[in-house]
DNA sequence: TACTCAATTTCGCTC
DNA sequence: GAGCGAAGTTGAGTA
């Protein structure tokens, strides 16, 4: 009798059932009126109110109100759930170490509790991620610009890994930063950071160009890009992946495109351009 | 009879209760075996498995497996929930526009359904945020460095808003970026971006310094900081806010501290330094 | 509505 | 475990 549900249980009954569910490794939901206290990476407190508490066997705890996708309070996986009755209230405490943090949920009344064995079925397949965009660019480098030849993906620099690194039509280094959605100033900063790092790593005098590949870009980001001498190439998401076009910024391309003679000199450093397995494998 | 719970209901019963709950504005939890399809900003599909579905009256939908704090699939607030029986399965569809996206949850069997009126009690008070750190710095500018005089918070620049802007002991502009936790290269990029923007806005020739205020910093970030001629000041979180000290990087300070004569020249642009109300007010 | 950034971000990956 | 960046990020605040 694993799926269990209690109506208006006493705290004592709730306590029993919670501990039994923890032992079984069941997932538990509790509807009721409670207060919530959190202390750890920050600290928070939440006054009395009607809420949903979800307890997972992996140690996760979620406190949800009637609004928002994000829980109003929570505890990450790896925590340990305990329950007790104190001062006439049912206390559910979830805590973990490194970092040390504790979530306390105190119910004044429990309206409903349910427990259920939920196992497996976690492997979700997502299409339309940045990894997919990277694969597209590697397979079709002209999406970035004519003459672009990818040499490596995730190439390490002193400033972090570059999405796609290669050479332009003139054989000069080109840094490509990919974003699956509209970008702001932060993405420009990221690209500028990588370009600067590659510049310092190059034998001096070599100009390093940088291009931001994204569906669209904010005005401020565009100004910053120009300020830094960097470029932007608009790439629309494929129709089959994302149903809704984000912004019709179509086929624009202000990457300071070097005119194209001199077929790629092919400075063959870094590892070969290859898609680094973005195939999400089902793990049941 | 608002709190409702069904055991091993037929799809027909589930359908009825779901629609009633939507009408009442109740929050609903459903345990059962289902598949999940999402299409919108990206696309995803999830094979059959035991899961928890949470439906909120504000349009949020969450699909949870037994692991992880994050739902395996979801729909943001503002969506509309509908339910139907199709091909012998119970389908719960949640969709919204702008962006256009739809979540389809198809149950082959429902083990349990509960609905409950969850209203209000959403106002959580959080202590230890970046806003709190900002307040500390504004009230005690010497935390950044001796002679620092804040002139404005959230001062707008072409690169975005600067956390704290002011003048150093020499009266030269100082840009301060605050982080409540250990920082990496991205924070350095952010600070560099702001410093560059302020430099361009200053009458030429004026040196603009930048300091990253954070509990600690990674090696790579430190190198980048040095490369950019920027500084770091370690500030530990107050004991009462965060219980666990993140890293004992104590009282270090490699902000390229200018020696201190010349009491702050006070270039009085921007608005006055003032804490911008970080007091979270309860909204019930 | 769009922009900008924080978040108890979480999560996955690599070293 | 730390570091690094993506995310269907979400959410808050402001113009």
Automatic annotation (TrEMBL), chains A, B:
It is found in: Cytoplasm. Residues 233-284 are annotated as: Disordered. Its main location: cytoplasm. GO terms for cellular component: cytoplasm. It holds the Pfam family NucS_C. Residues 27-117 form the Endonuclease NucS N-terminal PH-like domain. InterPro entries: Endonuclease_NucS (IPR002793), NucS_C (IPR048301), NucS_N (IPR048302), NucS_N_sf (IPR049173), tRNA_endonuc-like_dom_sf (IPR011856). Residues 129-242 form the Endonuclease NucS C-terminal domain. Residues 233-264 have a biased composition (Low complexity). Its EC number is 3.1.-.-. Keywords: Cytoplasm, DNA-binding, Endonuclease, Hydrolase, Nuclease. GO terms for molecular function: DNA binding; single-stranded DNA endodeoxyribonuclease activity. Cleaves both 3' and 5' ssDNA extremities of branched DNA structures. Belongs to the NucS endonuclease family. This is Endonuclease NucS. It comes from Candidatus Halobonum tyrrellensis G22.
